[in-house]
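Run folding on both entries below.
>entry_1
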Amino acid sequence: MQQKPLKDFMDLVAWKLARELRRKVYELTQTMPPEEKYVLVAQMRRAAISVTANLAEGFGRFSYQENVQFCRHARGSVSELRDHFTTALDERYITREQWKAAEELAQRVTQVLNGYIRATRARKDAADE
């Protein structure tokens, strides 16, 4: 079965999931205390934005290796978010159920990102042959 060629970063499954994660972060941070506005809330939102932005930028780069590097940055931002989710749970800003849902989504984004990195490397190897 032939896969439809990707024409835009918005076609990436990883980007679509990361977008969902970004929306989840904004939803979770809406109800955090005002004293966290410039601390945890800002950090979480920046990390969430970084995931989708790095995927978009990597997709637009010339080389496979640059794309992979931006995917790694995105993956790092997902890991950062997972730590922030735990902080929010520990401070009782989110419930255990909210934490679990956010954590599962973040892990899914990481899994798909890892697959995209592998596929990009494979395309590079095939192009080098």
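>entry_2
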Amino acid sequence: MPDHYTIAHSSTDREQWLEARRSGIGASDVPILLGLTTYGSNLSIYAQKCGDEPDPEAIEETEPMRWGKLFEPAIREELARRASLGDVQVIPEYTVLRSTRYPWLCCTPDGLTAAGEPVEVKNIGHGYHEDEWDEGIPAKWHAQVQAQLLVTGAKRACFGACLFGQRLVWEWIESDEITQRSIIAITQALWERIERRDPPPSDGMPDARRVAFAMADVRQPVTLLEDRESMNLWETLRERERGFRDQLKHAERARRAVEDSLVISMGAARSAVCGGYSLTRSTVERRGYTVAPSTYEQLKIKEAK
């Protein structure tokens, strides 16, 4: 569906491609902005697009990344066979498709069917969590595919994943208007901030603090911080967090007490069945390990005397 997008960039030059990626928000950025993964933050995406920190794709290729690229053609070929996709147009690696309706949105799907439907494949081993797949593909990749559908204008996409190099799972993903509305709103708001170089409020993801410190280092120091509104909010959230922490502590203690009662009820038995649940007692040996040294910055807030 070429009328829905333009080819914003296509070359064999990796550096040019990395520069082109800065000209929009990519489908792979969307799961981060929707809070569906902790591998990044809205501040890190902002900094990348402003050229203040490197694109994740510019980082030295790791072993899992290398094997993922090597396996991708085989996974795509087998997916096309099982899902009866026909001939899949392979999108060159250093290509950027840009939406004509939402020009800040870009994507690079792994392929397109003859009907213009995106094809996305993953090689998954490290980071696989079975419970994420209980109701279909994980939400983070569902969101990435929805962004691809927005760019291409297609009504559905085919997603396939090879798990541990041994099993292919796949499904068709239909266009989801509710998710797409969220994608449009959050990416447009961020892109407007990028254009005027106005950092967004932190989304609180672990990676955001690192970027916040980097941003602070280039600003003039202040003696008196006139931001009482933020401090008031911080105080409110701190008290709320303390309340939740106390509730969690009591709930965990009560749960452990019940588990202790169940252990006593089992006696010398190593397994039992109760109310549809199976209980198994086992001995676990935990290996010791040494934490690698690291350097990081932190923010401490104390009440003024």
